[in-house]
Design brief:
171 residues
Length: 171
């Protein structure tokens, strides 16, 4: 070999190649790790949303049933003045509830502040089941409804506005 041409020793070439391979392996591992964490986070948010929405539905159905039961006797006695304080107290105790409205024979009997004009014939059926529907696809607001019954007699209708905005903000 000529003296003017210096060659790189084999050990240096091996160390350089090994360093490049290790760096590539670490970069690929970091990329896969980040992708896995993102997938786990997305799955966790979806699971939390499902569980949160189920809890909100359950709570809203129970509240709808409780308010309908609590207002049945004043409605049967046509003591409509007693209905307002009952629903106002419920609204204060449950911040997820946005408003409550009660009607009898198609006429509004009592409503909390902020209650919109709602249809009272769209959510109940002959079995007296609690119905619910979303106000609009792009809004976190739901309307729950039930008949107010005393025995088999239907005394009125209840509508309750519930918001899932708190859950949406949390996720």
């Amino acid at each position: 070999m000529s003296a003017s041409r210096a060659s790189i020793p084999l050990s240096v070439k091996l160390m350089l190649t090994t360093s490049i391979v290790v760096a590539a392996a670490v970069a690929i591992s970091a990329w896969f790790g980040q992708r896995t964490i993102a997938e786990l986070a997305r799955d966790d948010v979806a699971a939390r949303r499902t569980a949160g929405e189920a809890a909100i539905v359950r709570e809203a159905e129970l509240l709808t049933k409780n308010v309908a039961t609590a207002t049945a006797i004043p409605m049967a006695q046509q003591a409509y003045g007693e209905v307002g304080p009952l629903i106002a107290a419920t609204l204060r105790d449950y911040p997820r509830i946005q408003w409550i409205a009660i009607a009898s024979d198609g006429k509004l009997v009592a409503a909390t502040p902020g209650a919109p004009t709602v249809a009272f014939d769209d959510l109940t059926d002959a079995r007296g089941a609690i119905g619910h529907r979303r106000v609009a696809p792009d809004k976190p607001d739901w309307i729950y409804g039930s008949d107010i019954r005393l025995g088999d007699q239907v005394l009125g209708q209840l509508r309750l506005g519930v918001s899932t905005a708190e859950l949406d903000a949390e996720l």
